[in-house]
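Nickel-responsive regulator
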Amino acid sequence: MAEIRQLRDKQPENEKITINLGFVDLGRIDLLVQEGFYSNRSDFIRTAIRKQLDTHGEAVDRSIERHTMELGLRDFSRAELEQHRAAGEVLHIKVVGLARIGSDVTPDLALATIGSITVLGSLQASADIKKALADRIQ
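Predicted structure tokens:
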């Protein structure tokens, strides 16, 4: 048992949000759950959000293209950032979704290679990286 070791930290696959709803709306959602239309409140809310996102899908796509943003999951590894530093390049990160900066990236490397970060979704990075880049995170 002494040889058990953690292989890697589990990264969350989603982000928890909090919303405020009126009692009537909440009651209507609970009624739909009770009637079997949805498995729980979260299922209803996720479904409603996805339907709205589908409704505005073209507008979102045009906006992503206009702002030259990447969609989905984007990892920034130490090796990639070192390549950019060696080439004298500064990144302006724009992601819709999840942006992750590797746990082995140092604050100095991040400062040398990242000019700005805009993430619509979630940014996962160490506390040291977030502190070092605080004035560059929009």
